[in-house]
Amino acid sequence: MKLLIILGAGFPHSGAIPAALREPCSGTSMLQWLLDSAGCGFDNCVFVAGYQAEAIRQRYPKLYVVENFDWATTGSGTSLLAAPLPENDPVLVSYSDILFRDSVPSTLAGTGADIAVAWDSLWKHRYAGRSSEDLLRCEKVIVQQNRVVRLGADLPVDWANGEFVGLVWLSAKAIHCLKQLKGKLPKSLKKRHLSEYIEYLRGLGLSIAAVDVAGDWAEFNEPRDIAHFV
Predict the structure, then answer these.
(1) Closest Cα partner for 113 from 210, 2, 3, 6?
(2) pLDDT per residue over 156-214, tens digit each?
(3) How far, CA to CA in Å, does 5 sit from each of 93, 162, 208?
(4) Which residues of 3-22 are buried (b: 16+ CB within 10 A; e: fewer)?
(5) Separate counts of helices (H) and strands (E) for the chain
(6) CA dihedral sign, ordered 99, 101, 104, 106
(7) What are phi and psi of 141, to 5 degrees?
(8) Cβ distance 81 to 59 under 8 Å?
């Protein structure tokens, strides 16, 4: 993977430590797991920080850290635009509080679509006792024939086929469209999630492939989820 962008500017879902610094298993931080799973090192990773940005820098002095200075009032999509985007190369974008297998990035990159998103068809039962509130909160997708036809946190639960996991591959074409948003970002997008930026690009006519991880991922907001994955 040429470049990994990790979006970690917001408040953690639980606790006071940035999600990227939490340890899903002893001695391995979320951030290190993401680097390993994406096949990246510090030289081809950008971390977008906000909340406790200095803690990230102190723990990982070799990591390229940029800041979304408006992190408290904007969404993860704005954090993506805070990162330096390449001219002609694809990018893998990940939330900082998720775990995924190392096979997923190459599968996303191999779809041939303008954009490829990882989603979970087993979202409702990935771990025991998942609350209805958590299902309402999460970013959701409607998928038809391995293509995403709608995505966003505002989708009703009974419309959705699954959950957007917070991992997306963006082609050079998609990156070019995002770069055009810099400097003239519509107000309607400033507080939006990454999934809603992808939905915006879908509206521009870009193709979006869907890669089902079928429950084999985790989010750090729920210890049972992490334990099941690890």
Answers:
(1) 210
(2) 999 999 999 999 999 999 999 999 988 788 888 999 999 999 999 999 999 999 999 99
(3) 5, 24, 19
(4) bbbbbbbbebeeeeebbbbb
(5) 8, 11
(6) positive
(7) -135, 150
(8) no
DSSP string of 107-158, one letter each residue: HHHTS-SSEEEEEETTGGGSSTT--HHHHHHS-EEEEETTEEEEEETTS-TT
183 Cβ contact list (under 8 Å, min separation 6): none
What are the structure tokens assigned to 117, written together?
A: 């998103």
* 135 three-state secondary structure: helix
CA distances from 225 to 5, 8, 35, 178, 228 (A): 23, 19, 20, 32, 5
Q: Which amino acid is at 128?
A: A
Name the packing angle between helices 194-203 and 172-181 (round to 10°): 100
The residue type found at 115 is I
User: pTM for the complete prediction?
Assistant: 0.94
